[in-house]
């Protein structure tokens, strides 16, 4: 895994851009699984690059692979989220895929636009990311995001049913 970072001053604020490259599976040691969790911290941070992984979280049409599932789990466990649109980032022949992932901190999520554009120079398409904020934006406070897909709905159902059964039956519809 390779990573290069730059910090860009925007007035009084600073934006960190980390560019990643994770080689394809056939170029890595067997069972190699990259860990990006330590990069998914802070505010005003973009983690971008060629991750050579497929997952529906970044709109890959080739299906989820093992590396993609591990990376998606790391992203889901953080406060960061992907901003890829439903468009390919790589075109090779008739195969359109999304190997390039754009992940942003929660303070930037609603202010970032993402677009891939057609290029004849490479099978990876250029990606244009714009931060739509005034240059002197203020760091936002850390927010909590809930992943309802990871919820234990059966456990929740059992807990709530048990708690409701423990409540006394109302004797008057006007009494709460």
UniProtKB/TrEMBL annotation:
Alphabetized GO MF terms: catalytic activity
Signal peptide: none
InterPro entries: Endo/exonu/phosph_ase_sf, Endo/exonuclease/phosphatase
Transmembrane segments: none
Name of the protein in question: Endo/exonuclease/phosphatase domain-containing protein
Pfam families linked to this entry: Exo_endo_phos_2
Limits of the Endonuclease/exonuclease/phosphatase domain: 17-128
Domain of life: Eukaryota
């Amino acid at each position: 895994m390779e990573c290069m970072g730059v910090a860009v001053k925007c007035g009084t604020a600073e934006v960190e851009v980390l560019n990643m490259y994770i080689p394809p599976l056939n170029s890595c040691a067997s069972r190699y699984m990259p860990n990006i969790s330590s990069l998914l911290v802070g505010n005003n941070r973009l983690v971008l690059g060629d991750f050579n992984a497929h997952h529906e979280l970044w709109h890959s049409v080739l299906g989820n692979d093992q590396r993609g599932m591990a990376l998606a789990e790391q992203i889901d466990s953080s406060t960061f989220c992907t901003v890829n649109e439903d468009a390919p980032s790589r075109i090779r022949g008739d195969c359109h895929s999304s190997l390039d992932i754009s992940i942003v901190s929660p303070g930037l999520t609603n202010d970032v636009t993402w677009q891939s554009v057609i290029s004849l120079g490479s099978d990876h398409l250029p990606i244009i990311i714009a931060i739509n904020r005034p240059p002197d934006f203020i760091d936002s406070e850390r927010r909590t995001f809930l992943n309802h897909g990871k919820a234990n709905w059966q456990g929740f159902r059992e807990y709530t049913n048990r708690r409701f059964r423990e409540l006394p039956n109302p004797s008057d519809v006007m009494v709460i």
